[in-house]
Each structure stands twice: as structure tokens, then as C-alpha cells.
Amino acid sequence: MTNNVIIYLTRHGESEYNVLKKIGGNSNLTENGIHYSKVLYEYFQNDKIDVYTSSLNRTIQTSQYFPEKRSYPQLNEIKSGICDGKTYDEIKSLYPEEYEKRKINKYCYRYPKGESYEDIKNRVTPFMEEMLGSSENRLIICHQAILRVLYSFFIKIPEQELPYLEIPLHTLFKFTIIKEANEIKNVELDKHYFSI
Question: Which of these is catalytic: 102, 123, 138, 143?
């Protein structure tokens, strides 16, 4: 008999930059984001769960009520280079050519002095291979672009569609991995929505 392993994925709670519609940065959580961190902890407080975050403030703060967690820079949000800390309207105004290039091929587009989704996939693959080979249940708290890439380890999706996956704030995604001989046979997806 084999045990099913569950991997939970969630974005950090609402951050100050989310409210301002700015990308990147290392902002803190808002009151709504702090509330989500409490709700998230309460959901798991009776379960044994290994918690992983990025090394950025907003994910660490989202995990603040869990007694044990580990931070991995591999889970940091996409590096937005010269566009870091700007809104998309500001990017369109300041760097119109970059704005248009990104629209043409969002998966392969690399921010100047930053990363592409393709780069993220290379960055997170060793981490996810380790997670998928584990026999422990895991909670991974990270960022929208990273979660889009992590999704592709569970569901088949064309690379060009990956950057458009909807990953809302304050949503917990549950993947039950059914293993036989250490190979993934089937995946069940279940969403739990938290209201604030």
C-alpha cells in the first residue's frame, strides 16, 4: 500500500505592492494579507505539514504563524530587472518596446537585467524534483509567476499558455499525488477559497 502525498501551493497574502499594482519589490503584507496568514495557519494547525517560502518578506510574513518553515531563494518571484517596482502602465510609458515584446511572447520574454518564465522553470526544477520525491506533505508559499511554473509540474499545459494561468491571491491549491513505484500516476486538484 502506498501513501498519497499532498502538495499545497499558495501565493503570499496581499502585499503593499499588490494594492499599488507594482511588480517585483520586497514589500510587506497589508492587513488583509496578515489576515490570510492567520487563516492559512488555522487551516493547517492540526496537520503535520512542511512549510517552504521564498526569501522575500511577503512570503515569510505569510508563514509567520507556522512554528517551522524554510526559505528558498529559488522560490523568489520572477526578476523584473529594470521594470522592478513599476506598474504596467509605467512600464508601457517608460519602455514601450519592452511592453510590446512581452505581449508577443510572454513565456520567452526576458525583462532587461531580469528573467523569463523559461528562466524560472530552470531555476525551480531541481527544487520541485526534490518536493515530488518526498513522502511528506508540503505547503509552498511563493509568488504568482513561480506558481504558474510550479503548476506545470502537475498539469499538462502548453508553455505559451502558462503565463496566463489565473493564480488569485488568498487561494490554496491542493494537489494529491498518487504514487506507485515513485512515479506520478494521477493528480487530483482541489481549490479552497478563503474570504477576508
Answer: 143
